């Protein structure tokens, strides 16, 4: 049976500019290419979980115009329950301006728009939905008080929550055992612990993961390292999984794809290392395509990719330390 996942989070309209290199302050880079797409961390993660095989409900907010209607219909076409995705008359849809260089690196600026309408009252209205969920996924693009309301309800009822603490612009959210799984990148991990580290120092990242897990009482912590892989920490050990080698085009939504696929795999009962490898494969496929939701792979594509890796150095590669 497919796991039931409820994603409470953001939906944005993405305005994508691909260029030779990212501009420095005051610099204008010409000869770019432009595209408009659907994105937002919450909706991206909902789609990633659904594409991987989960039964997904998405709780969010958009403006009330034709683009928002098209967005909602697109999510529904992928089998996502959008009965709790509201269309707000007084707010424009959230928007994100995404600049991408030829190596797939990006810079993103976000305007919250209708995402600010996702209030604690909206959270309380979907408590019955949360109670039916195998996993609840949260991110940091909706009001902090709404995330706090979700965590308080999850704590009260013992519901498993996967929190992607990104973007880490506000570190005030209380992290405790209500967050079963915490997913961050290495910069966010260091910010949460108020520590410095040398990028690329695997030993330092392993220690960050273990420190975060112990401090918050989480069942596990995942620190994503982009093209360098992921570190997973649970009560059993800390494991480093190297990234799959692919030709990167656009890293947008790679982390969101990881989160959605990870929740699906855990909901299926996979072990944390196996779930991490599955999610890493989904993320690797995502970076080979331009755009956010348009890049998220299907379960068939993920399984085929993993099968293609059998017998390679990437098959089963890991390094356990803690």
TrEMBL record:
Pathway field: Carbohydrate metabolism; D-ribose degradation; D-ribose 5-phosphate from beta-D-ribopyranose: step 2/2
Taking every annotated instance into account, which residue ranges of this chain make up the domain Carbohydrate kinase PfkB? 4-299
The residues responsible for catalysis, as annotated, are: 256 (proton acceptor)
- So where does substrate get bound? 12-14, 40-44, 141, 256
* Gene3D superfamilies (UniProt xref): 3.40.1190.20
Do the record's keywords include Kinase? yes
Q: Binding of ATP: at which residues?
A: 185, 224-229, 255-256
Gene Ontology MF term list: ribokinase activity
Q: What cofactor is needed?
A: Mg(2+)
Instruction: Explain how, and how many, cofactor molecules are bound.
Output: Requires a divalent cation, most likely magnesium in vivo, as an electrophilic catalyst to aid phosphoryl group transfer. It is the chelate of the metal and the nucleotide that is the actual substrate.
The alphabetized UniProt keywords are:
ATP-binding, Carbohydrate metabolism, Cytoplasm, Kinase, Magnesium, Metal-binding, Nucleotide-binding, Potassium, Transferase
In its keyword annotation, does this UniProt entry include Kinase?
yes
Reported EC number(s) for this entry are 2.7.1.15
Regarding activators and inhibitors, the annotation says:
Activated by a monovalent cation that binds near, but not in, the active site. The most likely occupant of the site in vivo is potassium. Ion binding induces a conformational change that may alter substrate affinity.
Q: Catalysed reaction per UniProt?
A: D-ribose + ATP = D-ribose 5-phosphate + ADP + H(+)
Q: Name one Pfam family in it.
A: PfkB
Where does this polypeptide localize? Answer: Cytoplasm
Which amino acids does the record list as binding K(+)? 250, 252, 286, 289, 291, 295
What function does this protein fulfil?
Catalyzes the phosphorylation of ribose at O-5 in a reaction requiring ATP and magnesium. The resulting D-ribose-5-phosphate can then be used either for sythesis of nucleotides, histidine, and tryptophan, or as a component of the pentose phosphate pathway.
> How does this polypeptide assemble, per the annotation?
Homodimer.
The family note in this entry says: Belongs to the carbohydrate kinase PfkB family. Ribokinase subfamily.
- Protein name as annotated: Ribokinase
């Amino acid at each position: 049976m497919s796991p039931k996942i409820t994603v409470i989070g953001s939906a944005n309209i993405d305005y994508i500019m691909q260029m030779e290199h990212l501009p420095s302050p005051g610099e204008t880079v010409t000869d770019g290419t432009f595209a408009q797409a659907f994105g937002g961390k919450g909706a991206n993660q909902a789609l990633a979980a659904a594409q991987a095989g989960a039964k997904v409900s998405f709780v969010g907010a958009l403006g009330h115009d034709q683009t928002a209607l098209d967005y909602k219909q697109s999510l529904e076409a992928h089998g996502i329950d959008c009965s709790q995705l509201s269309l707000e008359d007084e707010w424009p849809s959230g928007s994100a301006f995404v600049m991408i260089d030829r190596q797939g690196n990006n810079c993103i600026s976000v305007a919250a728009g209708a995402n600010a309408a996702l209030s604690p009252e909206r959270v309380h209205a979907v408590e019955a939905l949360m109670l039916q969920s195998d996993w609840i996924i949260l991110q940091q693009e909706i009001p902090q008080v709404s995330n706090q309301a979700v965590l308080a309800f999850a704590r009260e009822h013992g519901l498993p929550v996967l929190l992607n603490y990104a973007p880490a612009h506000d570190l005030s959210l209380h992290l405790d055992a209500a967050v079963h799984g915490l997913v961050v990148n290495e910069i966010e991990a260091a910010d949460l612990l108020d520590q410095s580290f040398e990028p690329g120092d695997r030993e330092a990242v392993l220690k960050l993961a273990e420190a975060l897990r112990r401090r918050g009482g989480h069942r596990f912590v995942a620190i994503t390292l982009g093209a360098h892989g992921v570190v997973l920490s649970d009560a059993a050990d800390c494991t480093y999984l190297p990234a799959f080698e692919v030709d990167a085009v656009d890293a947008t939504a790679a982390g969101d794809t990881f989160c959605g696929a990870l929740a699906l795999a855990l909901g299926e009962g996979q072990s944390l290392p196996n779930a991490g490898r599955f999610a890493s494969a989904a993320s690797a496929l995502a970076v080979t395509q331009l755009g956010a939701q348009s890049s998220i792979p299907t379960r068939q594509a993920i399984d085929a990719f993993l099968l293609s890796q059998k017998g390679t150095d990437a098959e089963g590669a890991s390094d356990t330390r803690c």
